[in-house]
Amino acid sequence: MKYRKKPVVIDAITFDEFLQYGRESSALNLVRGMPWSFSYNGHQVTHETDTCYLIPTLEGTHNFTPSDMLITGVKGEIYPCKKDIFEATYTKEE
Known about the structure:
The protein is α+β, with helices and mostly antiparallel strands. The protein has two helices and nine strands; from the N terminus they run E-H-E-E-E-E-E-E-E-E-H. Strand 2 (30-31) and strand 3 (34-35) form a beta hairpin.
């Protein structure tokens, strides 16, 4: 059988937008200008390297890197998605 994904609107941000959010929300918790550990949409995220954050997902901890988009799902869950897969799956809401 074949299935079609239901049309839902999601929120997603780039790695740079994520860093900016972290800098603004945890100004006192910066190390070399990088947000170290902060809450994003109620989920605690942690700095792994300057190009990788550890993201708690429903399937366990995943890496979020500059080659990903960070998606907030319909129930508030967050998860990284590779940009090429994201672009093949989602279109920007106007």
